[in-house]
Amino acid sequence: MSGNFSKHQSVSHTSSGSSVTLPVTDDAVEMVREKGDSLSRTHRSSHMSVSSSKAPSFSLSPSVSSVAPPSPSMKETNETFGISGQFNVDEREESSYYDDIESSCTSEMDDSERKLEKSRRLGQEFEGQLKSLTYLLRIITEELPSYLESQRSKLAKILVPHKHEDHILLQIIKKMKMIKGFHTAFTDEFGVVDFSNIQDAPQFPTVVIENADVLKSFIPFLKEKRELVEELKLSRKNDKELDAALSKFEKDHFKQGGHLNLQNQLDRIHQTVMRYGFLMEEFTKCFPDGSNMKEKSKEAVKKLKDVTTIIEGEMITATENETKKVHERLQGRFDTFKKARKLLLQERVWSDNGMKRHERYIVLFTDCMLVCRLTNSKDPGCAFEKDFYEFDLNTIEIEIDHYREYEKTLKVSTTERGFFFLFKNGKLKNDWVKAILDSQEKMKNRIGFDLKVVEAKKKFLKPVWVLESDVTGTLFPEERKQSREGKLHVKIGKREKVMAAEKLFKEPKKRDLKKFDLDERKKETKAFGLVYLRSGAMETEAYAWLKNDDRLVVVKQKLDFKPIFERNVANHEVRQSKERNGVVFAFSKRGMTNDDFTFRVKQPYSIKKWNTVLSDHFPETN
């Protein structure tokens, strides 16, 4: 009706819904056309003013823009006279044109705003790293000595210098005071930087460039850090009073108490120095190419990389010194300097054989692991006994128990024997598990690696001494004499039973095997695939199976039916987060903050499948 316009009549709708035919004159038609043109021009100009003054949007779909609705008077006029098609076509073309302009401008503004916000966050984190390390150094150099002085006289004597060698705590406090002075000088230079408005502070990269060399003063401590930590561990082990006092101090001053003890806090110094370089590199990405801030930031990144390279090189030299010490403790019975062999970890542990615990010292290299006995358990640098176990990493299998009572226990099985190692805490055990698994994975990619399992060392027989012929005579005489007459035994009166060929072999017993139909399993399954079940810092490769009755069953192999883990997820909530190696799905019970269990999905197709199923099943999934 709107397409065929007649000047003699038009149809309008009343509020009651009935149609009324009205006569239309030539003057009315001309008036409507003039009014339509003026309204269209007014609407376009108002749309452009709204688009230009519109604030940048942070919605998930920046291409979708909000357009002002048409004028009510225009809409009413179109409906009244039946000419809505003529004006709406032009209006849609203009609206889509301005939508494209607005969408591109909004996306560019969104990108610049995101980078601006990221630069602010990186600047605040850099400032937080400076303050955090300053706080840690103040705690060790000021609060710890005051705390020891307030304790009994025995602990207060720790702070008294000795002629031969100071106490290990006093050595650490002295080295921290030296680092504190240099780090304070490094931090004070950032007083001119406004971290809240860092995008407009070109002096930030300039300060980094001019003062990055101050971080080299940490090298003397970082080279000796491992030795200091080992001595501190041994001192706390032998002195229960000192250990109890330090544990109370750690609980009061460190956030997580024993899990972040004084030994772990010393590692934060190296981590913070490396973090400075990472934050500066991310800060550089927030500015366009060719800008002054970009060039200055690149120069600051290069300066920090040079400093960290020097620090890492000095620490590698310290690792070589550790390798020399291990070689000396083994008394030359093991080639620690073999080509491509590097020292990874070494630790005092307890070995449990089910009846008694024995103290052992385990050493991990890139290709093997040693289990040694100590000649003197009280001496941290004592030599090892001459008999020790050497296991090729390719022959080692580790079993990971996810129960809390086995949090500190690691079972190591080899082709020769097995061990139960008891570590001081679960974190230390997880570090060893990760180091062993990573080394085994790298061995597979090494050139010349044989995929066959390395056989255990063969035991050779001792040579037998043969006497001379004049004593024993001829070993193999030409003539053989029979000492007695032989007897012939004949079987009589018995018949040999002939058995059918199919009865010669028995059918195998079906012990743990179970026949099932894969098609039937698919019918009662919502999702099934390879996942990596997480427990603490460790991951176990398994297959997850979400059934129609809301039971999530995890099996070890694809065709297994016996579950190693099972949960009813009907009353659970699911959160998902992206990581570098896939997507992590975390399940938690409703109303609970802690995660019940977590698994990671690696393959893109599986991620899409699990995401679809869980999104339909759990509306809260995000």
TrEMBL record:
Compositionally biased region (Low complexity): 1-21, 47-68
GO MF annotation list: guanyl-nucleotide exchange factor activity
Stretches with biased composition (Basic and acidic residues): 30-40
Domain of life: Eukaryota
A Pfam short name: RhoGEF
Domain DH: 118-314
SMART domains in the record: PH (SM00233)
UniProt region (Disordered), positions on chain: 1-79
Any Gene Ontology biological process: filopodium assembly
InterPro entries given in the database record: DBL_dom_sf, DH_dom, FYVE_RhoGEF_PH, PH-like_dom_sf, PH_domain
Gene Ontology, cellular component aspect: cytoplasm
Protein name: DH domain-containing protein
Organism: Caenorhabditis remanei (Caenorhabditis vulgaris)
